[in-house]
Design a protein that fits this description.
Number of helices of chain B: 20
Number of domains of chain B: 1
Shape of chain B: globular
Order of helices and strands of chain C: HHHHHHHHEEHH
Helix content of chain C: 55-70%
Mean pLDDT of chain B: 93
Radius of gyration of chain C: 33 Å
Structural class of chain C: mainly alpha
Distance between the termini of chain B: 30 Å
Mean pLDDT of chain C: 82
Strand content of chain B: under 5%
Order of helices and strands of chain B: HHEEHHHHHHHHHHHHEEHHHHEHH
Helix content of chain B: over 70%
Strand content of chain C: under 5%
Low-confidence stretches of chain C: 1-5
Oligomer: heterotrimer
Number of strands of chain C: 2
Chains: A mainly alpha (99), B mainly alpha (510), C mainly alpha (261)
Distance between the termini of chain C: 98 Å
C-alpha cells in the first residue's frame, strides 16, 4: 500500500466516467459522467500533490472545481433549453444531425 | 508568513486586460442600457476594444516576457497569434453584426429563451428584439483564445480552454432559423467538449505526477533530467493531445465538427472556424515544443497518425457532402491535417509555416462563411449545394469571390492557401517527413476535387428554379467579405511582408 | 524520487479501502442505473467519499470545498434540473448506430485497463514526500493554497472571473423568459375571469346532497338534477362519472320541496 493506490483509484473512476459517456444516451447522465471524470482528475492531482510534496496539485484541483461549477451552469442551461424544445433529454433522439 | 504581491507585467498583459474589462463593461451595458441603444453601444464597444487590443498587440510585439509567475508567455509567436485572433475576431464580429440579410433581423434568435415556434418567439421577432448578449460572449471567447495561445502552464491552459469554449457553446445554440438544429449542435459541442477537456485535465494530472510541476519550464527540465521510467509522461502527453485534437477538429476527435458547423449561426461558424483553429494550434505547438520538446520522438508518431487520418478522412468524406456548411466542416478537418504536417516538423521553419497557414486559412474561411450567409432562398440560407447551381450566371461577383476562397482552400497558386501549403510541405520535407508530405499531397489532390466541384457547379450548370439568390448585405458583411477576399489574394501574390513579420517573431520562449 | 516507499498506516488503509470502494460503487451505480435521479444520487455518494479521501491526502480545505461545491451545489443543481425536465426521463433504448454501445463499452474498458495497468506499474517506485514541509513553510494548508493562488496563479484566478460571468449570463440568456406584454394587474385578471362568462365562484363540491362523498359522484342540485360541474375535469373527460342512486334523487326532491330553486 502506498499513495500510488489513490492514482490507480483515480484512473478507475476516470475510466468508469468515460464508459458512462460512451454508453449512456441520456444527456444529463452523460454530463454527470463527465463530472465524474473531472473528479477523478482532481483525486489524481491531490494524491500527486502529496507524493510530490508541493501544493500546486491542490491549487489545480481547487481551480477545477470552479471551472466545473461554471461548466455545469452552462451545460445544464443548454440541456434545459433543448429539453424544452423537444421534451426529451436523450442525446440521439429525433436527431436532425447526422452521424 | 508575509505575502508578497506578485509582479505582473501589466504592459505585456494590456491587450488581454483591455478585452477582459471590455467584456465586463459589455455585460453591464446589457444590464443597464435601455434596449433601444444596446446594439449600438455594444457594436461601438466591441469594435473599439478589438481594434484597441490589436494596436496594443502591435505596439507590444517586440516584448519577450514570462509573467504571472510562469503562467503567461508573451513571445513572438504569441503576439502573432493574438494579433491574428483579434483581426479574425473583428472580421467575424462584422459578420455577427450584419442585420440586413435576414429580413427579420440578425443571425441570432430574438430571444434564445423563447420556445421555437411559440407565440413569444413570434412577438419578439415582430418587435425586432435582438439578443445583444452575443457581444459579451464574443469578447469573452476572444479573451480565452488570447490566453490560450499565451498560456505557459497546464492550469492556465485548461482555464483558457474553458474561457474560450463556454461562450462558443452558447453562441452555437442561438441561431435564428432552424433552432432545434442549432440547439442540438450546442449540446453536442458542449458534451464532447467537456469530455475532451476531462481528458486534458487527467493528462495534466499525470504530467504533474511525473514532473512535480505544471509549468512548462520545469516539465521540460524534468524530462531532460529524469531517465528511464516515463510511462506516466507518455500516457499524460497522449491524454493532453486528445483534448487539443478535439479543439482543432482532427480525426478521430472530429465528430462534433460537421454538426456544429452546420447547426451554429453562420457568422459564428465562420468566426469560430477561423479563430479556434489559430488558438488551438498555438496552444498545441507551445505545449509540444516548450514542454515536451525533449520527447519529440515519442509524440511525433502520434501526430503522424492523426495528421494522415485527418487529411484522408476529411478529404474523402467531404466529397459526399450535399450541404455546403458540412462540406466546409470536413474541409476544415482535412486542413487541420495539413497544418499538423507543419507541426510535426517541430522546427522554426515548421512553426513559421504553420503560422502563415493559419493566417491564410483564417481569412479564407471567414470570407467563405460570409458568402454562405448571403446566398439565401425563402427559408433562410441555401446551404444545399444543389441550390448553388448556376450561381455564377445569376451573381457573377459573389460566385467569383467564393471561387477565390475555394481555390485558396484547395491550395492553387496565387492564393494565400498555396503559399501556406507550400510552406508546411517544405517544412515537412526539410524535417525528413517526406512520406507524410506525399500523403498530404495526395490528400490535397482529393480535396481539390470537391472545392473545384463547387466552382464547376456555380459556373457550368444552368440556373434552376431552385437556385438561391444573393442578398445585398449592409456594410458590415461587405467589409468583412472584401477584407477576406483581398487578403486571401494578397497573401498569395505578395506574401513576403507577412513572412518577414513571422520570421522576425522567432520561436517560443521558455 | 526513489526513496523508501512509505506505507499507509492502518487507519489510512481502512479509509482508503472503505471510501475508495464506496466511490467505485457509486460510479458503477451511476452508469448502471436506469433512472437519472438514481444516477445523480450515486454520483453524490462518490463525491462525498472523494471528499473524505482528499482529507486523508492532507487536503482538508479541498475536502470541505468538495462537499460544499460538488455535492452541495453542483449535484443539487443536477437534481434540480432532473426535476425540471421530468424525473422519469430514462434512456431511450434506440441505438442510432448498431453496436455503438458495445463499442463504447469496449473502448472504455480498454482505456481503463491501459490507464490502471500503465499507471499502476509506473508508480510502484514513486515516493511519498508528504505535505508537512510545504504546509509548514506557508503556515498552514489554506495559507499555502492562498499563497500560490494569489501569486503564481493569479492570472488563472482572474481568468476564472470571465468563466463565472459567462456562465451566469449564459444561464440568463437561455433560461430567463422575458415578457413582451405588461404584467396584468389584479383588477384586469378578475375582470377577464368574469367577462367571458366563466364560472365566477367555487364549483359545487362533489357529493353534495348525493349521500356519497366519492369525487366521481356529481353533486345534486336542489331540483334533483345532477351538476356535472362538481366532477373533476379529467374524470368528466373520461366519462367516468358515477350514476346517482335514483332513491337519493327522490329523497332530495322531497327535502327541498317548496324551496325556491
Amino acid at each position: 500500500m502506498n499513495p500510488a493506490n489513490y492514482v490507480v483509484l483515480a484512473a478507475i473512476l476516470f475510466s468508469l466516467g468515460a464508459i458512462g459517456v460512451l454508453v449512456r444516451r441520456n444527456a444529463i447522465i452523460v454530463f454527470m459522467s463527465v463530472e465524474l471524470m473531472l473528479n477523478a482528475a482532481n483525486l489524481a492531482f491531490v494524491a500527486f500533490a502529496r507524493m510530490n510534496g508541493n501544493l500546486d496539485g491542490q491549487v489545480v484541483a481547487f481551480f477545477v472545481m470552479v471551472v466545473a461549477a461554471a461548466e455545469v451552469v452552462v451545460g445544464l442551461a443548454i440541456i434545459v433549453t433543448i429539453f424544452r424544445t423537444r421534451k426529451s433529454a436523450s442525446v440521439d433522439e429525433p436527431n436532425l444531425l447526422k452521424y | 508568513m508575509e505575502f508578497i504581491s506578485p509582479e505582473l507585467d501589466y504592459a505585456a498583459l494590456a491587450p488581454m486586460i483591455v478585452v477582459g474589462v471590455a467584456a465586463i463593461i459589455s455585460v453591464l451595458v446589457e444590464a443597464f442600457a435601455p434596449r433601444s441603444v444596446r446594439r449600438f453601444l455594444q457594436l461601438v464597444l466591441v469594435f473599439t476594444t478589438l481594434i484597441g487590443a490589436l494596436v496594443l498587440v502591435v505596439l507590444n510585439s517586440g516584448m519577450r516576457v514570462l509573467t504571472g509567475g510562469q503562467s503567461i508567455a508573451l513571445d513572438g509567436p504569441a503576439w502573432i497569434m493574438q494579433g491574428t485572433i483579434l483581426i479574425l475576431a473583428i472580421l467575424g464580429g462584422l459578420l455577427m453584426a450584419e442585420g440586413g440579410v435576414d429580413p427579420s433581423g440578425d443571425a441570432f434568435a430574438p430571444r434564445a429563451s423563447a420556445l421555437p415556434g411559440s407565440e413569444d418567439e413570434r412577438q419578439f421577432t415582430i418587435r425586432g428584439y435582438l439578443q445583444t448578449e452575443v457581444w459579451p460572449f464574443l469578447l469573452f471567447a476572444v479573451l480565452g483564445m488570447m490566453l490560450f495561445v499565451a498560456s505557459n502552464d497546464l492550469l492556465m491552459m485548461f482555464i483558457a480552454l474553458e474561457v474560450m469554449s463556454l461562450p462558443l457553446y452558447l453562441l452555437a445554440g442561438m441561431a435564428r432559423r432552424r433552432r432545434l438544429l442549432s440547439q442540438e449542435a450546442a449540446l453536442k459541442y458542449f458534451l464532447l467538449g467537456a469530455f475532451s477537456s476531462a481528458f486534458f485535465l487527467f493528462g495534466a494530472a499525470l504530467i504533474y505526477g511525473y514532473s512535480g510541476s505544471i509549468a512548462f519550464g520545469p516539465i521540460s527540465f524534468a524530462i531532460t533530467t529524469k531517465a528511464g521510467e516515463n510511462t506516466l509522461l507518455l500516457i499524460g502527453i497522449a491524454m493532453l493531445l486528445v483534448g487539443l485534437f478535439f479543439k482543432i477538429g482532427a480525426v478521430p476527435f472530429h465528430q462534433w465538427t460537421p454538426d456544429v458547423y452546420q447547426g451554429a449561426p453562420t457568422p459564428v461558424t465562420g468566426m469560430m472556424a477561423a479563430t479556434v483553429k489559430v488558438a488551438a494550434f498555438g496552444a498545441l505547438m507551445r505545449l509540444l515544443y516548450v514542454a515536451f520538446g525533449g520527447v519529440r520522438w515519442d509524440w511525433e508518431i502520434l501526430l503522424w497518425i492523426v495528421a494522415i487520418l485527418s487529411m484522408l478522412v476529411g478529404s474523402i468524406i467531404a466529397i459526399s457532402q450535399s450541404d455546403i456548411k458540412r462540406m466546409l466542416a470536413y474541409s476544415s478537418i482535412a486542413q487541420a491535417g495539413f497544418i499538423l504536417v507543419g507541426v510535426v516538423a517541430a522546427s522554426p521553419q515548421g512553426l513559421a509555416s504553420v503560422l502563415f497557414y493559419l493566417i491564410a486559412y483564417g481569412f479564407t474561411t471567414i470570407g467563405a462563411f460570409a458568402v454562405i450567409s448571403l446566398v439565401r432562398n425563402a427559408s433562410g440560407e441555401a446551404t444545399s449545394i444543389r441550390d448553388w447551381a448556376g450561381l455564377g450566371k445569376k451573381s457573377p461577383l459573389i460566385a467569383a469571390i467564393f471561387s477565390v476562397f475555394m481555390l485558396s482552400l484547395a491550395g492553387i497558386p496565387l492564393t494565400g492557401g498555396f503559399i501556406g501549403k507550400w510552406g508546411v510541405f517544405a517544412a515537412g520535407v526539410a524535417a525528413g517527413d517526406a512520406w507524410l508530405v506525399i500523403v498530404a499531397v495526395i490528400a490535397s489532390v482529393i480535396a481539390a476535387f470537391f472545392y473545384v466541384r463547387v466552382i464547376v457547379l456555380m459556373y457550368f450548370a444552368d440556373p434552376t428554379p431552385d437556385t438561391a439568390a444573393v442578398v445585398i448585405p449592409s456594410g458590415f458583411t461587405t467589409v468583412s467579405l472584401a477584407a477576406g477576399a483581398t487578403l486571401t489574394i494578397a497573401l498569395g501574390i505578395v506574401p513576403q511582408p507577412i513572412l518577414d513579420i513571422i520570421a522576425n517573431a522567432g520561436v517560443f520562449i521558455r | 524520487m526513489t526513496e523508501a516507499v512509505s506505507d499507509f498506516n492502518l487507519g489510512e488503509t481502512i479509509v482508503f479501502w472503505v471510501c475508495g470502494g464506496l466511490a467505485v460503487l457509486g460510479a458503477l451505480g451511476m452508469i448502471i442505473s436506469r433512472k437519472a435521479v438514481h444516477s445523480a444520487l450515486f454520483i453524490a455518494l462518490t463525491m462525498i467519499n472523494l471528499a473524505i479521501l482528499y482529507v486523508a491526502n492532507a487536503a482538508p480545505f479541498l475536502g470541505m470545498v468538495q462537499v460544499i461545491v460538488y455535492t452541495g451545489a453542483v449535484m443539487m443543481l443536477f437534481l434540480f434540473v432532473l426535476m425540471v425536465v421530468g424525473v422519469d426521463s430514462s434512456d431511450s433504448l434506440v441505438e442510432t448506430i448498431k453496436g455503438q454501445r458495445f463499442a463504447g463499452l469496449l473502448l472504455g474498458i480498454g482505456l481503463g485497463l491501459l490507464l490502471t495497468v500503465g499507471i499502476g506499474s509506473a508508480l510502484t517506485t514513486s515516493g511519498d514526500i508528504g505535505l508537512t514541509a510545504a504546509n509548514d513553510a506557508a503556515g498552514g494548508n489554506v495559507q499555502g493554497l492562498a499563497q500560490l493562488m494569489f501569486d503564481d496563479y493569479v492570472v488563472a484566478f482572474q481568468a476564472t472571473a470571465a468563466l463565472l460571468i459567462t456562465a451566469a449570463v449564459g444561464a440568463m440568456v437561455l433560461a430567463h423568459r422575458e415578457r413582451w406584454t405588461p404584467r396584468k394587474s389584479q383588477p384586469e385578471l378578475s375582470e377577464e375571469r368574469f367577462r367571458d362568462g366563466g364560472h365566477p365562484g367555487n364549483r359545487p363540491s362533489p357529493g353534495v346532497y348525493a349521500r356519497h362523498n366519492a369525487v366521481d359522484t356529481p353533486a345534486l342540485l336542489p331540483d334533483g338534477s345532477t351538476s356535472l360541474d362538481s366532477v373533476p375535469g379529467p374524470l368528466r373527460a373520461r366519462d367516468d362519472v358515477r350514476d346517482v342512486d335514483p332513491a337519493d334523487v327522490d329523497e332530495i326532491r322531497e327535502l327541498t320541496k317548496g324551496v325556491d330553486s
